[in-house]
From TrEMBL:
Family per record: Belongs to the NAD(P)-dependent epimerase/dehydratase family. Dihydroflavonol-4-reductase subfamily.
Source organism, top-level taxon: Eukaryota
UniProt name for this protein: NAD-dependent epimerase/dehydratase domain-containing protein
Domain NAD-dependent epimerase/dehydratase: 13-199
Claim: Calcium is one of the keywords in the record: no
InterPro entries referenced in this protein's UniProt entry, alphabetically: Epimerase_deHydtase, NAD(P)-bd_dom_sf, NAD(P)_dehydrat-like
Gene Ontology molecular function terms on file: oxidoreductase activity, acting on the CH-OH group of donors, NAD or NADP as acceptor
Alphabetized Pfam families for the sequence: Epimerase
Length: 281
């Protein structure tokens, strides 16, 4: 599958990587792949607010992975959830540090038609229930918006968040905030919670929360003129990443993460390389 061709280019892939096509809604296909494994990382999920495309794969697919993992008696399952399962609640204050004990409100997700957060929340809650029923050792990572170098040649949903400010398609930014984390840190977080025997529960994976205006300021030397139409700026949510820090994870600063994202977009041909940089090479 050309979609996954970049994975075969990873260091050591020829010796240690095998790819299998799996239908998350087909328990048998999952069982055939998980059989004989020591651990499972369940990262697959649609990223959409279309309920028809989001809900069944996210919810039933996760259930099938947990069930198959229980039957295979794997040592641990690491599930990639989302910060969307944590803060989507009208009662969550921006004046407190939000930690792993917070949950999104399903009715609020439905009322605001945020089907991604709804689907991921139901999926994670179901995963915890099924894991408990089947005595599966489950640990969950809840990343915020993931940025950083691209492995694949195409642009993904999270990178578009930055690209739109750099290619001129977004002339202004909204009065909103976002939390960011490097893709390298997300990968390492998964390894840490799998390999650390004492790891348990949910792990928020976030470096920092920034207003859109702050992001634009960091990207200023690449960014076209942009007007700030809304003042004062809304406060960001502050998420606790202490549990991952306690496991030894040192987060990549957002400024560096944004820089690496831009460089990767240039290298992949999604953004032009400034003439000065070309001349200096």
């Amino acid at each position: 599958d050309p979609k996954n061709g970049h994975l075969k280019e990873l260091e050591g892939a020829k010796e240690r990587l095998t790819l299998h096509k799996v239908d998350l809604l087909d328990l048998n296909s999952i069982q055939s792949v998980i059989h004989g494994c020591h651990g499972v990382f369940h990262t697959a999920s649609p990223v959409t607010d279309n309920p028809e495309e989001m809900l069944e794969p996210a919810i039933n697919g996760t259930k099938n992975v947990i069930i198959a993992s229980a039957e295979a008696k794997v040592r641990r399952v690491v599930f990639t959830s989302s910060i969307g399962t944590v803060y989507m609640n009208p009662n969550t204050s921006r004046d407190v540090v939000v930690d792993d004990t917070y949950w999104s409100d399903l009715e609020y997700c439905k009322d605001t038609k945020n089907w991604y957060c709804y689907g991921k929340t139901v999926a994670e809650q179901s995963a915890w229930d099924i894991a408990k029923e089947n005595q599966v050792d489950l640990v969950v990572v809840n990343p915020v918006l993931v940025l950083g170098p691209l492995l694949q040649s195409t642009v993904n949903a999270s990178t578009i968040h930055i690209l739109k400010y750099l290619n001129g398609s977004a002339k202004t930014y909204v009065n909103a905030t976002q939390s960011y984390v490097s893709v390298k840190d997300v990968a390492l977080a998964h390894v840490l919670v799998y390999e650390t025997n004492s790891a348990s529960g949910r792990y928020i994976c976030s470096d920092a929360s920034l207003h859109r205006g702050e992001v634009v300021e960091i990207l200023a030397k690449y960014f076209p003129e942009c007007s700030d139409e809304k003042n004062p700026r809304v406060k960001p949510f502050i998420f606790s990443n202490q549990k991952l820090k306690d496991l030894g994870l040192e987060f990549t600063p957002v400024r560096q993460c944004l820089y690496e994202t831009v460089r990767s977009l240039q290298e992949k041909g999604h953004l032009p390389i400034p003439q000065m940089e070309e001349d200096s090479v």
